[in-house]
Amino acid sequence: TADSAETLQLTRTCPYAPPEQHLRLLREQPVTEVRLPSGSNAWVAARYEDIRTILSDPRFSADRRHPNAPRLSGEMAPGESPLPKMMLEMDPPEHGPARRAVVGEFTLRRIAALRPRIQQIVDEHLDAMLDGPRPVDLVRAFALPVPSLVICELLGVPYEEHDFFQTHSAQLLNRAATPQERQHAAFELVVYLDKLIRAKEEDPTDDLLGRQVVKQRESGEVDHGALLSLAFLLLLAGHETTANMISLGTYMLLRHPETLAALRADPSKTPGAVEELLRHFTIAEFAIARVATEDVELGGTVIPAGAGVLTLANAGNRDPEVFADPEAFDIERDARSHLAFGYGPHQCLGQNLARVELEIVFDSLFRRIPGLRLAVPAEELSFKDEASVYGMHELPVTW
Ligand code: HEM
Predict the structure, then answer these.
(1) Measured in angstroms, how far is the CA atom of residue 245 from the centroid of ligand 1?
(2) What is the pLDDT of residues 344-395, one digit of tens each?
(3) What ipTM was assigned to the predicted interfaces of this complex?
(4) If you take atom 39 of ligand 1, which residue's CA is the nearest one?
(5) Using a 6 Å cutoff on CB, does residue 350 contact ligand 1?
(6) Is ligand 1 within 6 A of the CB of residue 245?
(7) Helix or strand or coil: residue 110?
(8) Which residue has its alpha carbon closest to ligand 1 atom 36?
(9) Helix crossing, 179-202 with 224-255: angle to 10°?
(10) What is the position in ligand 1's atom list of the atom closest to the CA of 285?
(11) Strand ranges in 168-241 using DSSP code E only, listed in sequence order
(12) Contact, 310 vs 44, CB < 8 A?
């Protein structure tokens, strides 16, 4: 019953493995009710197949503003968000048109065309690092600015203002911040983007947001709120996530010198390494939240209508039914079907971009700085245990 449910652990014991509890649930209680640290209850699913079912079954709603949507802690209560609904929170029939309006910007072909510019951005940051003092914090010098600059250019957001939105995005994703702090951060970002979009509505620029303005005009469906929530979602989802994967991936490869040597010797292994890193860290599992709209039976257990649902994707990515020897970090395995980008209609819109960025980053970083190493003992590194997207606070490196 609700009262006897065990509390869901959120803190990883090792930088990539899920809490031991999630692995136990995977083995013994793949679908079960838990208590969240916020005090409310939710259902969790840990098996790969159950997670795919939940994420592709329309009986589960993505509406984060539903009163029963799982809230881990400190999240804004429903109704407190200053934002128009984002595609991430939409169900059919609303979700499809919102996603289709922008999906053309993220096709493989469009993203491949960005490669030369991404390479240039990566090289410029590596040049600056190589010219600068050692040791250096890789997060500040490289992992955060590269994807930030890429998403800013794509959207048409002036990068000079990155300090402003990076600070506020980090606050918004910080589980340790109070709901008031998070609401304030969201409000500041909304005010900023509102002004930016109004300027583009006056005078559309040739960037993603400007093109959306033009598209809206052509179709006669001008919707400022939709643009605002799109800009907000892309800015937020587009830099923190990739930045965290850059620092975590660098950390992991530095800790696995043989794998790194194999990668250096044969860059054609990089895409496989990126998939395995994504599987291993599954940084955004707590970004996925659903509500059951009907009773749904999963493997003999009924998730009741109205229940909040979390998918433990990091455990799902270690389901031995799908990934042989799941604990092993093996860049030769085929990890492409991992759940790190979610699954189903909401599966990450930016995944092609994230993959290309990560491939260019790891190839260039280890090629240009072959002697790269940690500048502090691994035990001293600090990970974002309190954030809803996992990552590293700092990564001091030298060479
Ligand atoms: C959705 C992870 C990078 C934009 C998602 C979801 C996950 C995810 C798990 C699904 C959420 C759900 O089902 O409720 C990641 C990871 C990334 C990454 C691990 C980096 C390694 C990006 C980038 C962008 C982006 C670079 C944009 C440029 C989005 C958007 C959605 C989304 C717009 C919502 C899609 C929808 O609701 O239809 N992401 N993401 N993401 N992501 Fe990403």
Answers:
(1) 13
(2) 999 999 999 999 999 999 999 999 999 999 999 999 999 998 778 899 999 9
(3) 0.99
(4) 348
(5) yes
(6) yes
(7) helix
(8) 346
(9) 120
(10) 9
(11) none
(12) yes
